[in-house]
Amino acid sequence: MENVSKYNELLMTYVIAFGSKVLGAIALWVIGGWVITLAGGLTSKAMGARNVDPTLTRYTEAVVKVALRIALIIAILGVMGVETTSFAALLAAAGIAIGAAWSGLLANFAAGAFLMVLRPFKVGDMITAGGVTGDVLEIGVFATTLQTGDNVRVYVGNNKIFSDNIVNYSQNPYRRVDLSAQLAHGVDSGSAVLQMRREISAIPNVLTTPPPDIDVVGFTPSGALLAVRPYCDNKHYWQVFFDTNRAIERVATAAGWPTPAPVHVAVTRH
Asked: Which of 4, 73, 157, 243 lies 20 to 30 Å (CA to CA) from residue 141?
């Protein structure tokens, strides 16, 4: 009976000790979860007060929550009596293995972080990146979403964007529309420049400062070649592009300019 009593006492001791650890772990999990939610909310609120980009705000909040959650799990294991040093080593080894297996995904993640910090473009900008041209809809953690001019949604990996040239058409207050007009022999280029400048300057959304660049840029076998380059806001680019082409046609038709003759190359056989 005495031995049974000792076993009961020993069992009760272990049960009480284990139960205390479980209760402590549960309490730590609940309180820690509340603290993590609070920390994430405070981070989001602080960044929102400074007008930080919403995508960067969500990204930072997620990183803070994940880091605190990992710390909470390690703390709970310590309360349960698990050797956290060996667990940390196991976690590091798992991280290396995951990093090797998901190298492409992690590269996109790292590139996304740099895009959000350096901000070469923002949501709403028109860019060319990763071989795609379109408006930026979202800068995600792993990929950036673009809406192309032909109404196609394209998801481009952040690493592909960050490792290549990025062209931002919305960064500057205006951009240039590059066109040309071929004149036939016998057409006065000086008069043609004046007429085109007057017609193109009247196109809606063509800027007066800087004024359109229209001048002789070279010569071809058909005659003088004019560079026609109006300036406009990026959102009016295609409207100005098409209206300028129509203006060139109107000027040529009204002035009665002859159509540039095609060039024929004669091949003589010996």
From this structure: 73
Q: Of 3.40.640.10, 3.30.70.100, 3.40.50.620, 3.40.47.10, which CATH number belongs to 175-255?
A: 3.30.70.100
Alpha carbons 126 and 268: distance in angstroms, whole number: 52
Contacts for 256 with CB less than 8 Å, ≥ 6 apart: none
Q: Where are the alpha helices (DSSP H) in the chain?
A: 2-49, 54-79, 84-101, 103-118, 158-162, 189-201, 237-255
Enter the CATH code of domain 120-168. Answer: 2.30.30.60
The pLDDT score that the predictor gives to residue 180 is 93
Among 112-121, 155-164, 168-177, 231-240, the least confident range: 112-121
What is the separation of C-alpha 89 from the centre of its chain, rounded to a whole number of angstroms? 36
For 2-101, CATH gives 1.10.287.1260
Q: Which residue has the tokens 């405070």?
A: 42
Complete DSSP assignment for 88-148? HHHHHHHHHHHHHHTHHHHHHHHHHHHHHHH-SS-TT-EEEETTEEEEEEEE-SSEEEEE-
CA distance linking residue 97 with residue 262, whole number of Å: 66
